[in-house]
Design goal:
The chain contains 7 helices and 10 strands. The protein has helices at residues 61-68, 91-98, 117-127, 133-143, 159-171, 189-206, 217-221; strands spanning 17-29, 34-46, 50-54, 76-81, 84-85, 102-106, 177-181, 209-213, 225-230, 233-239. It starts with 16 loop residues before the first strand and ends with a strand. Mean pLDDT is 91; it is low at 1-14. Bound molecules: adenosine-5'-triphosphate and magnesium ion (MG). The site of magnesium ion (MG) has 3 residues, from helix 1. The site of adenosine-5'-triphosphate (ATP) has 12 residues, from strand 1, strand 2 and helix 1.
Amino acid sequence: MQPVLPCHRIRVTTSQAAISARNLTLALGSDDAPVEILRGIDLDIARGETVALLGPSGSGKSSLMAVLSGLERASGGSLLVAGQDFATMDEDALAHARRGRIGIVLQAFHLLPTMTALENVATPMELAGENDAQARAQAELEAVGLGHRLGHYPQQLSGGEQQRVAIARATAPRPDLIFADEPTGNLDAATGHEIVELLFARREETGATLLVITHDPELAGHCKRVLTLGDGVIATDTAA
Ligand SMILES: Nc1ncnc2c1ncn2[C@@H]1O[C@H](COP(=O)(O)OP(=O)(O)OP(=O)(O)O)[C@@H](O)[C@H]1O
Ligand SMILES: [Mg+2]
């Protein structure tokens, strides 16, 4: 008979979580007229999870993403992102912590108009001190189907092409986390569909954790977990 081996229970520690937030709050506006946007967010997201964030307009989705991605500092609570304590970092430390680890795709693309597609993807990696930034940027643009548009400026690209550049820029540094805020919001249905496929294909390739804000049921349906935000807290949290 085989000896019975001791069974060690595997505990998910916070160091294994991509995001761990406790009682996270955010108040913006002036001191005498603060607007309470986040009122106590408790949230754990495991590495590699794909999560959709839904909620009415003005419910605080973009604000929550800004806090979780280190673009905005929380007013209170605790926040660990990839094991790093975002709640206590100053702006410089947050910028440093984001670099190369967090990729962000926004509705309005936000490409730099004076840079070509290649430069838009390569420059953030160069600033982060990567050696082969140009080659990696080119490979990533080829992966999103834009190998023939490397030297084009954003204004010479269609909306869908610009969003492909934005996806390449977000994924090229192989980030642990990808945040996307309504990535199909400015695109027609067919182009939006292509962008969804591409975003999930690139996420699959990198194994990154993905949190995506969307009103698009198709996009939400691609995620393993769906959160809704209401009154500044997570109102529902369901596995898809
Ligand atoms: N700098 C600011 N000062 C004061 N209030 C703000 C500020 N930024 C955002 N808000 C308010 O915070 C609330 C949440 O805004 P947020 O952009 O996070 O909502 P959202 O859920 O992303 O909405 P949408 O679906 O329209 O994009 C809104 O009521 C907004 O007016
Ligand atoms: Mg928003």
